[in-house]
Design goal:
Blueprint (H helix, E strand, L loop, with lengths): L8 H25 L2 H17 L1 H4 L5 H20 L20 H11 L3 H12 L4 H8 L3 H20 L8
Length: about 170
């Protein structure tokens, strides 16, 4: 017979935080990674890191800001580990595009994916999370000037990518 323990108040507070924050931060992780499964894994890993420090962090004023910073830092760490090219014998088939997503939305997503991770993080934090330049600099742990230059470069790349015509293939 298995014995179930009652949830402590700290665990209940953590569960409530996760339930309230999941959707918002999943969208942020999705914009950072460009892939649903990687986004879920990134968010879960980040939430595990927060749970490990929950007793101390539960007294923090803005847990959402802390989770946002953990997400960005974990994504940067993953990118650094994976940035080496790995060669494979055969190129895998591309996944079929699903849903009723417009061609423009797909083009924006592809253009966002084409940005380097740091530029993508700056664009997502500035425009999706609606953070100021100084807040983005704080989250990324860099100077405001770096945020400004990365943002300008990213917007130039996005403008260029979005100005190219979108070709649809017919089957």
């Amino acid at each position: 017979m298995t014995e179930t323990k009652a949830m402590t108040s700290a665990d209940a507070a953590y569960v409530a935080f996760v339930e309230a924050a999941w959707q918002r931060h999943l969208r942020l992780a999705l914009l950072l990674t460009g892939d649903r499964w990687q986004a879920e894994e990134l968010l879960q890993d980040s939430l595990v890191r927060i749970y490990e420090r929950w007793r101390r962090l539960s007294r923090t004023d803005d847990l959402n800001a802390y989770l946002r910073k953990v997400l960005v830092n974990n994504h940067t760490s993953l990118w650094r580990r994976r940035r080496r090219e790995s060669l494979v014998a055969e190129v895998p088939d591309a996944a079929a595009q699903g849903g009723d997503v417009s061609a423009e939305a797909l083009a924006v997503r592809d253009a966002l994916r084409s940005l380097p991770p740091r530029q993508r993080a700056v664009v997502v934090l500035r425009h999706y999370e609606d953070l100021t330049e100084s807040q983005v600099a704080q989250v990324l742990g860099c100077a405001i000037g770096t945020v400004k230059s990365q943002h300008a470069k990213a917007l130039a790349k996005l403008r260029h990518a979005m100005s190219e015509p979108v070709f649809e293939t017919s089957r």
